[in-house]
Design brief:
The structure holds two protein chains of two kinds.
Chain A lengths: L3 E3 L2 E5 L4 E6 L6 E7 L6 E7 L4 E4 L2 E6 L4 E6 L8 E8 L6 E2 L3 E6 L1
Parallel strand pairs in A: 2-11
Antiparallel strand pairs in A: 1-3, 3-8, 4-5, 4-9, 6-7, 7-8, 9-10, 9-11
Chain B lengths: L4 E3 L2 E4 L5 E6 L6 E7 L6 E7 L2 E5 L7 E4 L6 E5 L8 E8 L4 E3 L3 E5 L1
Parallel strand pairs in B: 2-11
Antiparallel strand pairs in B: 1-3, 3-8, 4-5, 4-9, 5-6, 7-8, 9-10, 9-11
Classes of the chains: A mainly beta, B mainly beta.
């Protein structure tokens, strides 16, 4: 079953923060986060595994709450390059990520 | 190693024709996935290989779709008797561990 992402779209100014949420109705083993720019392939950002809590690099981090079957992606002090569509992919032990519909992020100067 | 490679990048075909796409995964990646993506949607799972074995197929994959990975390296996805509803971006991804890396995709337009 497809995970649900919220919000559907976010519009920010440079330097502002954003949070994108991903929730699943199924028990999760891992959550994958990708960013896709228009006309390009999804680019892997990070993966959170069952038993882990939070991960991040630079100003993008994510958390994974296994009990709630939810993950959140945090973008801090957003840059223009952060614009794109963010997808979460959830996986319950099958090695096959199922992706949400995406959250469109637009960062303005 | 230059990542996952897909060919062709674009394909325009007439309804009813057959098309075949190729995916070359990152070398030594044993898992290979095919996804389909339409405008405004996330990637939709089609099929999954571990080495040469096709372990999972989506119910979305009708009899007109077939995929192979004969030697556990590159893979092909064939669509027979294409329909306008097949128009989409077809994405291939490969994985060795838990992270999957996508190719640039093949954009199919059925006219």
């Amino acid at each position: 079953q497809q995970p649900v992402q919220s919000p559907q779209a976010v519009i920010l100014r440079e330097g502002e923060d954003a949070v994108i949420n991903c929730s699943s109705s199924k028990a999760l083993y891992s959550v994958h986060w990708y960013r896709q720019k228009h006309g390009e392939a999804p680019v892997f950002l990070m993966i959170l595994l069952k038993g882990g809590e939070q991960k991040g690099h630079d100003k993008i981090s994510a958390s994974f709450n296994e009990k709630k079957q939810q993950s959140s992606l945090y973008l801090t002090a957003s840059q223009l390059s952060y614009s794109g569509t963010y997808f979460c992919g959830t996986e319950g032990g099958s090695y096959i990520p199922t992706f949400g519909r995406g959250t469109s992020l637009i960062v303005h100067p | 190693d230059t990542g996952v490679s897909q060919n062709p990048r674009h394909k325009i075909t007439k309804r009813g024709q057959n098309v075949t796409f190729r995916c070359d995964p990152i070398s030594e990646h044993n898992r290979l996935y095919w996804y389909r993506q339409t405008l405004g949607q996330g990637p939709e799972f089609l099929t999954y290989f571990q080495n040469e074995a096709q372990l999972e197929k989506s119910r979305l994959l009708s009899d007109r779709f077939s995929a192979e990975r004969p030697k556990g390296s590159f893979s092909t996805l064939e669509i027979q008797r294409t329909e306008q509803g097949d128009s989409a971006m077809y994405l291939c991804a490969s994985s060795l561990g838990v992270e999957a890396f996508f190719g640039q995709g093949t954009r199919l337009t059925v006219v």
